[in-house]
Amino acid sequence: MDKDRVIGSAKVVKGKAKVALGRAIGDAKLEAEGEAEKIEGKSQNAVGSIKDTIRDA
Fold it and tell me: Could you tell me if residue 35 is left (phi over 0), alpha (psi between -120 and 50 degrees) or otherwise beta?
């Protein structure tokens, strides 16, 4: 498993936590940061998946 997949997954989890906290306290900026971090994490996870596929081929 590529390190990008691990880091990407961690960013997705962190982003989800920020979104939930932002919604709970009514902080739109924190919620938006969380959404952006989730997207960044998903992208990084996809890059890691591609690297794994290339490495296995």
Answer: alpha
